[in-house]
Amino acid sequence: MTTTEAPSGHPTTTNEAPLGPTMTTTAAPLAPVRAVGTGHVRVEGRDKVTGAARYAGEVPFAELAHGWLVLSTVALGRIRDIEADAVLALPGVLAVLDHRNAPPLKTDYVGLLGTVPDPTCAVFQSDRVPHRGWPVALVVAETSEQAREAAEALVVHYEQVPHDVEFTGDRHDTHPADGHMPAVTDKGDLEAELAASAVVVDATYTTPEEHHHPMEPHAATARWEGDRLEVVDSNQGSTWVVGELANLFSLDPASVRVRSEHVGGGFGSKGVRAHQVAAVMASGMVGRPVRVVLTRRQMFTLAGHRSPTVQRVRLGADADGRLRALDHRSLSRTSTVYEFVEPSAGVARVMYDADAHHTENRLVRLDVPSPTWMRAPGEAPGSFALEAALDELADKCGIDPIALRLRNEPEVGPVSGLPFAGRNLRACFEEGAHRFGWDRRDPRPGVRREGRWLLGTGTAAASFGAGAAPSTASITAEADGRFTVRIAAADIGTGARTALTLVAADALHVPPERVRVHLGDSAFGPAMIAGGSMGTRSWSWAVMAAADELRERLVPGAAIPAGGITVRSDTTAAIAALAQKERHSFGAQFAEVAVDPATGEVRVRRMLGVFAAGRIVNPLTARGQFTGGMIWGISMALHEEAARDATSGGPVGADLAGYHVATHADVPRVEAYWVEDDDPDDPVGIKGIGEIGIVGAAAAVANAVWHATGVRHRSLPIRPDRVLTGGRDA
Amino acid sequence: MREFGYRRASDVPGAVALLGSDPDARYLAGGTNLVDLMKTGVERPGRLVDVRGLPLDRVEATPAGGVRIGATVTNSDLAAHPLIRDRYPVLAQAVLAGASGQLRNMATVGGNLLQRTRCAYFADATGPCNKRAPGSGCPAVRGENRNHAILGASAQCVAVHPSDMAVALAALDGVVHYETAQRPGELPLGWFYLPVADTPHRETALPPGALITDVTLPPAPVAVRSRYRKVRERASYAFAVGSVAAALDVRDGVVREVRLAYGAVASRPWRARAAERTLTGAPADAESFAAAADAELAAARPLSDNGFKVTLMRNLTVAVLSELAEEGAR
Amino acid sequence: MALVTSSVITLHINGERYSLPVDHRTTLLDALRERLDLTGTKKGCDQGQCGACTVLVDGRRTVACLQLAIAAEGREITTVEGLADGDRLHPVQQAFLDLDGYQCGYCTPGQICSAIGVLAEHAAGWPSAASADVRPAAGPPPLTADEIRERMSGNLCRCGAYTSIVEAVARAAESGPASRTAVVPGPKEPAA
Predict the structure, then answer these.
(1) Where is the composition biased (Low complexity) (chain A) (predicted)?
(2) Shortest CB distance from A14 goes to which of C87, C152, C166?
(3) Which residues of chain C lie closer than 8 angstroms to A665, CB-CB?
């Protein structure tokens, strides 16, 4: 980076270094030795602010045709007939793809993440319609306008049968469901400990159906060249999607290439979906590249979502707040075609111990779209219920909410019995309380007024798993002194491309300007997806391993051959060798809110989070990951809710005017800090930070609303009507 | 979206002639509502007559002391205009409370008056809706109706009008002027929107083919002290859950004149005449303001999920009028 | 007489002229992205509900998704591609880059174009819903964080980069008039 005097006289930063990608620092010059830990602007930042960065739907293809999905307008039944001929006669229409002419797909496989495919993505395999908004056809045309009109004109006849979409806490047709953790954990005599408790909280909390809604809708372009398939896509893991497509279409994975260079957000929703599969089918059918982009409305039923939850939490404690009994039971909802559980009751397995400890995730199957992972699956809704219940317990015991939590800090994993590989929750609360000014807080609710606003503050704890999954990477020492890293990582906005540049630079002992990272291409080999807060940790591990080996291969002073020297790494064995421990990030959330009791408006005035989340690679982008998660918490607490019409079985207000996510005016000053969280035994030292920021954030807001008003809101979002009706559901 | 013809009009008679009596044609101005509805299939016009370039883009003082607002004045220009901000702050505030900066730069006064409801059932062309498809039924009556009407609705339709601007215009006795192929006409805002009754698809009293040309506001000294307050489920860029446009003139502690209109409670901006009558001549205190709101809201018929709106509107009325009274006393 | 449903139009974009036949249904957004390969302008919702497609039309920020291409004929359109002066970024772009005013980057071109519009509107003395008093006598509202937040609220950012976006807009405002003008080179010969 150099600072030059521009012609206009404005000092401006430019990138004139002969080597390396765009890399400038925000303030001080680069620290020469360690890049990790110093703020760096994103390596692709210039492309993003100038519009040069191309996302999936923007990569040009010659002879491109446009596909438009047609979704069912009934919630349950069968397709009787599709009047394709009428539509094929419309201008520009090339093909209509449905269950009568679609190629058969293989769906009995287990994918990279150990899961079977959601049949919603295995399009056009039968006449069955299991929910409203189910894909029934794809219309392909020369232009997107023609495809859209033809898709809207396509007449589909259904045989409709009564559906059931009513999600309530008192359903009897539920079952315990494992998902990515056991459905039930149980120890001690719950009823006995509750009976022996001086103080008991027994409350039910609900969270609504929530949607990811990344700003970039799902988009894919597929092209066949002979028996080779190329897909330009927007996803969270290109080798993951290759695996799914290869399985679905019974292809050799080596003949499938998926590229996903820039991804406009994912949050769990961008895996294999109906649009990629339909595009692949259609491209084969019309012999041209076909692009399919989901509309915002279609995303409500095709992109996955977070299930609503009903959660009952029972806490029993001694008068001093020590937990004797903890019972957290969560019910979530899935479709009739796919089993996905929102494991909200899993939070307590890490957070709090008790003599009797019971957690249970149950599921009911309804005629609704399939849910999926959404930013902090389980932890986000689960921490709302559990951390709100802790706040209720603190009030009942007359104990400060932070003191209550610190009094119940477990020595080992409450369920696993394993030691923690670091648990710096106490430091988070101490640092956060100091910065937030918690010690000045009057614990009494409903006593602070400023004009029309009642003011209150709240806090909550957070945790999220710090796992890692096997990945491969390659690094090439180029003849010109640069290093090229190739890894099938995905940068969905997390700053992974920049983080891996810094990690590689430090591991190679070179300045980051000499490192170029290529990602988002399945040709680079298997790698973990951007998900589960495991991406950056897993990829960094592979990059560090390759760098270490490459450094050993490079002979000081010796020239590098024209083709460069390349080494590959694979972390499978190293990850398997990792000692069994409870590995998590932790955090403390603080919120200050203002509530107008006359109108029911709630405004968050201030939010502050302190996190113990391993070594922070790039403080500049890490701050955005934490605050972005916290802003999701604000949005979850006050705004987000997808409505479903019982009669039609479909979504109501399926757009961004009906489904509110927080906008600028909802978001006040949001601060994120971090504390030391070193684990000398950890070979990477880096934890994922994409999800911890949302955990506990909604609870902190809800607890602050109670502190402001004296009224508990146990159902999210805390809408004006709910505040006006005093927490009773309107 | 079906294919359509497009013509750009350069003057008002030309626009009216281009549209003619074709029921399949629509005027296009800012497009913020119409183009969206065309994409969702709610509107499927065969022809568009673009009127955005018509010379109707001025805000002028009238000799009588009011203002004339051209139909193609953008929401932004209206809210930024010194005359509006000075004489009718409630109108500037109402416009600024609506949509976003981008949409206000596009949307026009005429189009704003004619925007369609944001009822989610209306917007979903795959389901029933009496306003969109007469006779198909109203799912909102027994469906998701938290944001629906509490006043003036019918069993056929419980949708609310989405405009913030029109609420202020209703309080300010705005008059809508239009042109047709035969003759010009005008409609006071109170008559501009039709009652829902059994014909929710018929929304305004405009004759077929009519083009809105201007909105005039009579002088309203009471509006010097006026305010628009909007409650919504997000702090900005969201439609109202309930809103109040109010103007208040208090002399010696007594209400001399009051204007009050409610938004997001009915199929049209709801001029709260009963409240105004109750309040005129009454003491300017919270008790009177509450009594006035109660007088207006006695006619409220809440649905399953929107009973809170009665409380909200009562509280908003008291809050906004109290603020205005306090400021007047200073 | 058969209805004419497509026309050849000329669009003025970033100082260049583009002649192209368009289906009347084509929005300005789709014309930019699918016809002219100007993909910097993003499609987030296609319904005017997210702001990702914000461009400047005759200097004012508008959403390109609700603007028919044919209705944009004759107007000066500036997209994110038209903001930088060669390698020199527009002050708003530079501030977004320096302060990490984005994450995934998809809403970013819209946020940047919107911010330029916000700064221009504020400089023109326009009030907002966050302004305490809209009357002209109250004078122009100060450009507080709350003013920026309200004025930028038509641009959703699902990653939640709002904090740094607001900082970036405030930082860019320090550049004065350059921050609120789209720098567009003079008209060139027709490109198509």
Answers:
(1) 17-26
(2) C87
(3) 130, 146, 149-150, 153
Domain C6-80 has CATH 3.30.390.50: no
Residue B286: CATH number of its domain: 3.30.390.50
Q: Do C80 and A667 touch (CB under 8 A)?
A: no
* Domain locations along chain C: 6-80, 91-180
Residues of C in Cβ contact (< 8 Å) with B5: 3-5, 24
Domains of chain A, first to last: 61-162+215-265+270-302 (3.90.1170.50), 174-210+306-466+581-724 (3.30.365.10), 472-574 (3.30.365.10)
d(CA C121, CA C113): 12
| Cβ burial, residue A403 (10 Å; 0-12/13-18/19+) | middle
The CATH number of C91-180 is 1.10.150.120
> In the beta sheet, which residues pair with residue A314?
A202, A327
Dist CA A574 CA C103 (whole Å): 31
Domain count, chain B: 1
Does B94 reside within a domain? no
Assess whether A210 carries a catalytic annotation.
no
Q: Which two tokens stand for residue A612?
A: 């113990």
Residue of A149, A724, A729 best to disrupt the B interface, most CBs of B under 10 A: A724
Residue C85 has which token pair? 């002066």
Do the strands A228-233 and A256-259 form a parallel or antiparallel pair, or are they unpaired?
A: parallel
SS3 content of chain C, % helix, strand, coil (to 5): 35, 15, 50
Residue B327 distance to chain A (closest CA, Å): 14
In degrees rounded to 5, what are phi and psi of residue A551? -60, -35
- For A300, phi then psi, to 5°, come to -65, -25
**Chain A positions in Cβ-Cβ contact with residue B146 (cut-off 8 Å):** 721, 730
CB atoms closer than 10 angstroms to residue A181 = 16
User: Does the beta-carbon distance from A721 to B306 stay under 8 Å?
Assistant: yes
Averaged pLDDT, groups of 10, chain A, 730 residues long: 32 33 35 82 98 98 98 98 98 98 96 91 98 98 97 98 97 96 98 98 98 98 97 98 98 98 98 98 98 98 98 98 98 98 98 98 98 98 98 98 98 97 97 98 97 98 97 97 98 98 97 98 98 97 98 90 96 96 98 98 98 98 98 98 97 97 98 94 94 98 98 98 77
- Going by the DSSP 8-state scheme, the letter that residue C142 receives in this structure is P
By residue range, what is the domain housing residue B320? 224-329
pLDDT digits (tens, 9 = 90+) for B144-179: 999 999 999 999 999 999 999 999 999 999 999 999
Q: How many Å separate Cα A165 from the centre of its chain?
A: 25
Predicted structure pTM score: 0.96
pLDDT in tens, B240-287: 999 999 999 999 999 999 999 999 999 999 999 999 999 999 999 999
Residue B305 belongs to a domain:
yes
Helix (DSSP H) and strand (DSSP E) numbers for chain A: 17, 29
